[in-house]
């Protein structure tokens, strides 16, 4: 099971996205997938290129729209393990509506966000995750808008799996992606993935100094949503590990009547009117 392909990433040397690529490849192998079992759907941005750098089914979509495609894919073929991926601009600006609705819908897929607090592909503009005071080409006097507290937003939207990691922690990131893939529902994994070219503030060293690993917090219970919210607010969102998991809420597709039949993608397109009507009723 080799999820590496021969395509050489054109990310800048040192970009945090290399670790995410490696972690995703290892996690897929560790959970026992074959390349044909995995689909990676990406949006636009430096990180969006990841779908071409994994030996699996890949789809590089349009800006902010990885999740609608990933959800459609999962509903059409629930036998696939579906991973959506992109950056913080892709998922938390233009794609924010899709992100929050996917979270509350809870279709079984894993969404990995490579969060570098900047737009790298377009050469360095402020993103919705940039800190107040952050100076970029688009905010030469410093950012004055508050960054979006996306993990808190995910919890209030009804998330069933919320985790956060850091590109330097390959082992921890791989483990969280494995847990996300095994989770029966929507898994959000935000990864601090430094942009070494355009973000000179949120560097590897900055994260090492500012992140708190949840394993160091005594008595932390990732099944307690209130405690998850509290710890995020106390640490300004700068925690790593499994923040919250709801093991009880069923996935969207498990609540659809008749959905346990053969996946749509495996059914013949030459079907009787009666079978067609059955399918339509299945999704009503
Ligand atoms: Fe990575 Fe930044 Fe380079 Fe893009 S510009 S590849 S995010 S280091």
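-> sequence recovered:
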């Amino acid at each position: 099971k080799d999820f590496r392909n021969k395509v050489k990433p054109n990310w800048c040397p040192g970009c945090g996205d290399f670790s995410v690529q490696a972690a995703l490849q290892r996690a897929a192998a560790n959970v026992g997938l074959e390349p044909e079992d995995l689909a990676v759907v990406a949006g636009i941005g430096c990180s969006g290129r990841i779908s071409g750098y994994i030996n699996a089914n890949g789809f590089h979509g349009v800006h902010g729209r990885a999740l609608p495609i990933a959800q459609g894919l999962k509903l059409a073929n629930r036998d696939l393990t579906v991973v959506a991926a992109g950056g913080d601009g892709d998922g938390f600006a233009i794609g924010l509506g899709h992100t929050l609705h996917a979270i509350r819908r809870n279709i079984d897929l894993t969404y990995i966000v490579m969060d570098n607090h900047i737009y790298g592909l377009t050469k360095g503009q402020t993103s919705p995750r940039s800190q107040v005071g952050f100076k970029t080409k688009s905010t030469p006097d410093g950012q004055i808008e508050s960054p979006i507290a996306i993990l808190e937003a995910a919890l209030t939207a009804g998330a069933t799996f919320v985790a956060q990691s850091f590109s330097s922690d390959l082992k921890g990131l791989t483990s969280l992606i494995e847990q996300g893939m095994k989770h029966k529902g929507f898994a959000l994994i935000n990864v601090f993935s430094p942009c070494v070219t355009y973000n000179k503030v949120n560097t590897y060293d900055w994260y090492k100094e500012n992140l708190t690993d949840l394993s160091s917090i005594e008595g932390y219970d990732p099944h307690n949503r209130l405690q998850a919210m509290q710890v995020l607010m106390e640490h300004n969102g700068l925690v790593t590990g499994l923040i919250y998991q709801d093991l009880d809420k069923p996935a969207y597709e498990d609540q659809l009547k008749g959905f346990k039949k053969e996946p749509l993608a495996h059914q013949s397109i030459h079907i009787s009117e009666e079978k067609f009507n059955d399918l339509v009723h299945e999704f009503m």
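The pocket of iron/sulfur cluster is lined by residues 11-12, 15, 17, 46, 116, 120, 195-198 (CB under 6 Å).
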